[in-house]
Amino acid sequence: MAKSSTTRIQQVANKAHDAVDKTADAAENVDARVRETAEQVKAKTNESVDTMKTASANAQQTVTDYVNDNPMKALGIAFGAGVIATAILRK
Asked: Where is the composition biased (Basic and acidic residues) (predicted)?
């Protein structure tokens, strides 16, 4: 009977070991997928930041060019925007 219980314990231990191995393999696969997804998100974020920087620089250059070409209009627009902002903030 001792041999039978030892065999049974060994079988249970083997099954437990197999389960741990399968769990470890699954965890490695999940880790790899998470890392890959994180790299993709990082790349997309960097791409978006670069796009926004370019758009911001272009907008700034457009405004600068307009102000240089039309200083009086730009001054009038700025004054009007200030009046409107003051009126809104007073309420």
From this structure: 15-32
